[in-house]
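Sample entry as discussed:
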Amino acid sequence: MTVAMASAAIPPLLPKELSTIVDTYTPVVSAYASSALPATVGNCSAANAPKPCQDVGDLYATKSSFYDIQARWISGLNTINVNTVKLTYDANGTMNADVSVTFKSLPMSLHVDVCLPGAGCSKLLDNTDTCCGGPKTISATATVACSEVFPYLRNATVSNVSIAPALEVMYNISGKPTALFDATSVLQKELAQQGTTLLQNQGLTLLNEKIKQLYGDTIFCTQTSQLAWIAKNPQNSGSKSNAPATTTTSPKSHASFQSMSILCLFFAWIITLM
């Protein structure tokens, strides 16, 4: 496919462009997300992790004088359903993406030893039934700053992470399911920290490259900047927002291709945090 930029186009107001794309294509995102995500993430070489699996090592491991806990992997990621996605932006172009997704089930491979000082440790449990069940709904806010100099999207953070119902680690005591501890706050904190790292170091790189490919070297973060550009380029004032033109597809079909290209990257960026 040969793509050429329309010579008289007005460069886009990027936050508005992304917000419109999200609003338009959210209904098709669940199908994309479920096919794009692996079944499992964690230590793929441990305890017969379901395939496909993305290996990132143990999800969580901690040891003390009284216990040794190892969360090896979590599965069911490809049972995702996207409930809501809403992208808003302020006058400075800072964007907030509020995302809520539900997983049918999130079985976690969990190994727990109980220990006594001087006596050693013995296995308390080693299964995928103890945590975390389903359905589970995860909500979060991804915030990113807009820059009119490449890279266009910067300073990503993930915050306001919530998980419901609670991620309680259960154990059968005398045949009765009993909560050993509530892992919700630990997981919420980890999601925010790891999500921010992934978003900043990997997700934004993909998005920025695609945005530059589609829109070139000029985008706007604020309406004030866009209006100032139009005032300096009155010959373009009657043109619509910058959209690539192609020699092999119609404008309508290419617009869909452009929107979906950005959208797929955008949701890969957000959803794979969960």
Notes: Confidence is low (pLDDT under 50) at residues 1-7, 239-257. The chain has one domain: 3-271. Residues 3-271 form one domain. DSSP finds five helices and 14 strands in the chain.
